[in-house]
Write a structure and sequence with these properties.
The protein is mainly α and 316 residues long. It has twelve helices and two strands. Helix 2 packs antiparallel against helix 11. It is globular, with a radius of gyration of 21 Å.
């Protein structure tokens, strides 16, 4: 069992949690965790390399895919140090500053991923609704500006979080619920009024996650309307087929997020293991599966990856 500490000052350390009630099982969870992280790093790095070296993939759709791969890679690397230290080395303690630093990066890259998914939906909307103007609308400058805006929005929204946590006194339990640091998890341990943290956290979620979900919904309503106006059934299927990979990525991000939110809100009677499992699925599943989805669904990427592993030259 990880140690339990109390302090009357601002907490200098937090205690992370592995598998609740089953610390002896942590080591066995480290094996699949290492496999997941290895798959995530390998898959997303391959996507980035293939898009960089293959000239035919220097198009808006694949630039946004590269942003998604870079975000998934960054999100995984943000959680990996404490996840591996807890489950592999049984190091449960994390310093306060390290915890809020990890908290900042996890929330920031979570917001970036949501924004990139919206940017990819905009790409599909322009490609289907304005195919003749696709290249003139989504120029390199526009794509760069969209990427910078997505990153800046998330950084600005999350930046106050470490300062809001830093001001709180912690004089009770310092035991976090997961093997990584989240704002809402650390906030519950404070022995002071946390209404400012709660209100700001809610506003940040509305500003990023809820707003992005609404934009995604509207985008696909417009896309479906445009597809229904296509006369040829074959062309309709072809147009929708270009959106399937993105739809899978959206589901991989939002379904675990909604599931974790519902369990956190209505599943307080459930085993802590269920809460831990859902939190880990939300954090680990999209970065692992997004490269797989796009590799399987995108012929150009699949062909180049096969050529790389078969030793063939990546032709222009």
């Amino acid at each position: 069992m990880p140690p339990f500490n109390q302090t009357t000052d601002n907490q200098q350390t937090f205690t992370l949690t592995g598998i609740p009630g089953m610390p002896e099982k942590d080591f066995w969870l480290a094996l699949p965790l290492c496999l997941l992280y290895s798959t995530t790093v390998l898959g997303n790095v391959i996507i980035l390399i293939v898009i960089k070296v293959e000239q035919s993939l220097h198009e808006p759709m694949y630039y946004f895919l590269a942003m998604l791969a870079a975000t998934d890679l960054s999100l995984s690397l943000s959680s990996m140090p404490t996840m591996i230290s807890v489950h592999w080395f049984s190091w449960y303690s994390v310093t306060f500053d390290a915890c809020i630093t990890q908290m900042f990066f996890i929330h920031t890259f979570g917001g970036v991923e949501s924004g990139v998914l919206v940017a990819m939906a905009f790409d599909r909307f322009v490609a289907i609704c304005f195919p003749l103007r696709y290249a003139t609308i989504l120029t390199h400058g526009v794509i760069g500006s969209i990427g910078a805006a997505v990153l800046l929005r998330s950084v600005v929204a999350v930046l106050p979080v470490p300062f809001l946590i830093k001001r709180l006194p912690f004089c009770h339990s310092n035991m976090l619920s997961h093997a990584y640091c989240l704002h809402q998890d650390a906030m519950k341990l404070a022995c002071a009024d946390t209404r400012v943290n709660s209100i700001y956290g809610l506003l940040a979620v509305i500003f990023i996650i809820v707003l992005d979900a609404l934009v995604l919904l509207v985008s696909y309503i417009l896309i479906i309307q445009a597809v229904l106006h296509i006369a040829s059934p074959e062309e309709r299927v072809k147009a929708l087929n270009t959106c399937l990979s993105h739809i899978c990525a959206v589901l991989l991000f939002y379904v675990p997020l909604i599931g974790m939110t519902l369990i956190h809100r209505f599943g307080k009677h459930l085993s802590p293991v269920v809460h831990t499992l859902m939190a880990n699925i939300y954090l680990l599943l999209p970065p692992v599966l997004n490269p797989v989805v796009y590799s399987v669904r995108t012929k150009q990427i699949r062909r180049r990856i096969v050529q790389v592993f078969c030793g063939g030259r990546i032709a222009p």
